[in-house]
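dumping these here so i dont lose them again. two proteins, back to back, each one seq then structure tokens. dont judge the mess
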Amino acid sequence: MTMINESLAGDFILVGFSDHPQLEKILFAVVLISYLLTLVGNTAIILISYLDPMLHTPMYYFLTHLSFVDLCFTTSIAPQLLWNLRGPYKTISPTGCAIQLYVSLALGSTECVLLAVMAFDRYVAVCRPLHYATGMHSRLCQSLVGMAWLSGVGNTLIQGTITLRLPRCGNRRIYHFICEVPAMVKLACVNIHANEVQLFMASLVLLLLPLTLILISYGCIAQAVMRIRSAQAWRKALGTCGSHLLVVTLFYGTITAVYIQPNSSYAHSQGKFITLLYTIVTPTLNPLIYTLRNKDVKGALRRLVQKDRAQQSEKL
């Protein structure tokens, strides 16, 4: 087992994957590559959506915010994780831990609601196409995005503050690779039943409620497409909703396994690997899914490249 330095009295110790020293080297390479791809991919989507007028639509407005959330979410976790995987010191300062807890929880909660907002946008586009332009106006889009951000910030202020104020009686070993609410609650030296109930209720509201809205939206979309009985309509619906549905499956399929599972199994290794999926891998795959499966984004990228080449030719 990799030696964990415990000489820094005030710091938390992120045990992480230190019980698998050989695996840490592989994880370092995987996390580093994933993080770089996340930076490049999500930044590219934000720039393309901003620069191409054809993408100035509600769908890409929401996608831009999703890319920004993923970019910040991974950045709040990956650098510290890389540092701990690389060296023998697995520590994080109390301030750093609090910042990571607040920021990652706020962004993760925001993404939960934002994915539900995007599903509603797809519902209006497919089931109410004639009213899409007037229904999904800019003020409504801004309000929906604002609601997602406020939900995330509100949740983290409540859950994060309650978690950090729990007495820990000197317990500093976090059996995880990040400062996350379920792992931090386990450090408490008092009865945490009320906190576990609160965490479960918050998970129901911010995970299962948005997921239910997403499933209802896609159920309505499926019914609308089936009534048309057209292969072309099926292809259009799949092209319009397929990317978002795949992203929803990846994100919710992993995060619900951590926050809805029995608390006694949280410290197991599988919990760490599942968390690694939705914090590092999923934000890496999102840009690839939206670019490889989306004709609009690929078309916008081609137009920007052609425009750049034309400008260079004029200079010559």
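---- next one ----
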Amino acid sequence: MAGTSLGSRLYRQIKRNPGLIPMIGFIGLGMGSAALYLLRLALRSPDVCWDRKNNPEPWNRLSPNDQYKFLAVSTDYKKLKKDRPDF
């Protein structure tokens, strides 16, 4: 047992207890969804600044029509007007 790899031990446990398959599937799905959401936050959020030299304040370059929230329930971003000054 000491020389076996993690994958072979997991395979043996799944073979002995087939009820683990849905649990492992849902855990994998949750981990994958969390990783994709973190990647989306890192790449699309105006709060994250990857290039400080060319774009030091990315939140100032957003137009009022840009939807950066994950889910907008009642806001139609295409109809919004600009209500803030340019800096």
